[in-house]
Amino acid sequence: MINHPKKTKDFRFLFLLMFCAVSGAVLNGSAAFAESTRCSQSEHPTTQCLTQSPVIQTIQGAFTGIVVGSAAAVGAVWRQHF
User: Fold this and answer.
1) Which of 5, 8, 31, 73 is the most buried (most CB within 10 A)?
2) Cβ distance 54 to 40 under 8 Å?
């Protein structure tokens, strides 16, 4: 079986895309959770801090991390792959 360069490039791109998306979700989700915890423990919490659930903030942070991580992966290989 011959290893085609196009398939190898596709596999590497998909691996990079998944790695960046998962990394972005983990990092941004944990940062959003830490921020919501810090906000709720502050002396003068804001209205947004009091009304929004830490779980919702963590999910929103993780989703933002997925989008940003995916965009970073596409941007990193834009010239070589497309």
Assistant:
1) 73
2) yes
